Amino acid sequence: MPLFFKHNMKPHPLLISVFLALPLAAQDKAAKKVESNESLRFEGARVETYKTLGDVKLTIHIFEPPGHKPADKRPAIVFFFGGGWRSGSPKQFEQQCRHLAARGMVAMTADYRVSSRHNTKAIACVQDGKSAVRWARTNAARLGIDPERIAAGGGSAGGHVAACTGVLEGKDEPGEGTKVSSRPNAMALFNPALVLAPVDGKEFLSRDNIDGLRERMGVEPKELSPLHHVRKGAPPTIVFHGKADTTVPYWTAEAFTEAMKKAGNVCELKGYEGQPHGFFNHGRGDNSKYQETLREMDAFFVKLGWLKAEKGK
Q1: pLDDT tens-digit readout, 79-113
Q2: Which of 198, 203, 141, 133 is nearest to 162 (CA)?
Q3: How many domains does the chain fold into?
Q4: Is residue 67 part of a domain?
């Protein structure tokens, strides 16, 4: 499940298969390059610190619609990057943020703790995700966003983090006030890790990876497995997943969608024939799947009433 490649790289398929066959500990040793996000800046966006833990400052990059004012009460979204809970960069969702900001949303892409930079477990990623959503809602008036229209989005491990903010109870940062909800009002998930514990006896990962999952999570994997926590009242959700994904199997997205619908929740699954993990990223191939998933995500927010339909579409 962990990925160490940058989102716009095209590694040889054999290299990917060999890497994914390794136990988690071996994957960590293989992922040697560590990228710092501390000095990351995006043209036209501003950056704020949403959480401080000791000397660690976690930042969030904010893309605003043209002429945005605090009184506007726009819908908003917070994106979380992928990287197997061990690496990654907010750059992954820069282009999605730019598109949604141009369409009228306040779009944000957040940094969060990962094992390569902070020596943390996946539970810390989830805690940070909840903190980021709570920060956005707490600061809604100042940021010019509607506290009842905040979405969480993300890819792979970041999709897992976003899903956890929507379906998990608890798992907040210890000592953080919980009076303001950390649950988003919608979710947009890209090849997310949604099943981290057995379902009907199916193997959701290789045996080596299953054996090492408890260590990587920092808690029993079932505690952080979104599928196992689906209940009625979960936010409306759209899931994008490649049917040829060998990193996060397509059936896991199907199982999550089925569980959401059975619980009475709105959940759309967009499956893409022949597409592998990370197919949606900007810079992948000719960008056709990036554009396609972007249109589908845009249409999802139009259906929710968060965006107005574009003229002629």
Answers
A1: 999 999 999 999 999 999 999 999 999 999 999 99
A2: 133
A3: 1
A4: yes
- For 150, the 3-state DSSP assignment is strand
What is the number of other CB atoms lying within 10 angstroms of the CB of residue 172? 16
Residue at 169: amino acid letter: E
Among the listed residues 293, 199, 188, the one whose alpha carbon sits nearest the alpha carbon of residue 255: 199
Task: Determine the Cα–Cα distance for residues 270 and 146; give it in Å rounded to an integer.
Answer: 27
CATH code for position 122: 3.40.50.1820
**224 within a domain of the structure (yes/no):** yes
Beta carbons within 10 angstroms of residue 102's beta carbon: 12
The full length of the chain comes to 313
Distance (Å) of CA 46 to CA 37, 40, 64, 110: 14, 11, 9, 12
Whether 286 is covered by a domain: the verdict is yes
> pLDDT tens, 145-189?
999 999 999 999 999 999 999 999 999 999 999 999 999 999 999
Domain that holds residue 234: 27-303
| Cβ contact 194:149 at 8 Å | no
- Pairing status of strand 237-242 against strand 106-110: unpaired
| Distance, CA of 19 to CA of 17 (rounded, Å) | 5
- Dihedral of the alpha carbons of 126, 127, 129, 132, in degrees to the nearest 10: 180
- Determine, yes or no, domain membership for 11: no
